[in-house]
Amino acid sequence: MTRARHIPDEGDFEGEGRPGSFRLIPGERAGEYEFAYICPCGCGAEGWLLVGHGHKPMGRRASWKWNGSTSAPTLEPSINHVGHWHGWLRDGVWKEV
Ligand SMILES: [Zn+2]
């Protein structure tokens, strides 16, 4: 179980590389963001997810519905960081399945 920590500053995010931390970058469309995160498994890899604030962006690529919270984020559906981590981000906690 790993806490999701919001790190808005890109430099801090890249520098710390703490498992489960994340930042949000505004996407091409209103209400859509790139959810950049450090893999919660501890390998240090960075992943990117297309998320929508309160909705699941449709159509172009895999996407997730984000509850809009940075302190206790929830994403649906589950996240599969291919090869080494598969689980859920719910209420600010990464939980492996
Ligand atoms: Zn990993």
From TrEMBL:
Q: Which domain of life is it from?
A: Bacteria
What are the start and end residues of every segment in region (Disordered)? 1-21
Q: InterPro entries from the entry?
A: DUF6527
Q: What is this protein called?
A: Uncharacterized protein
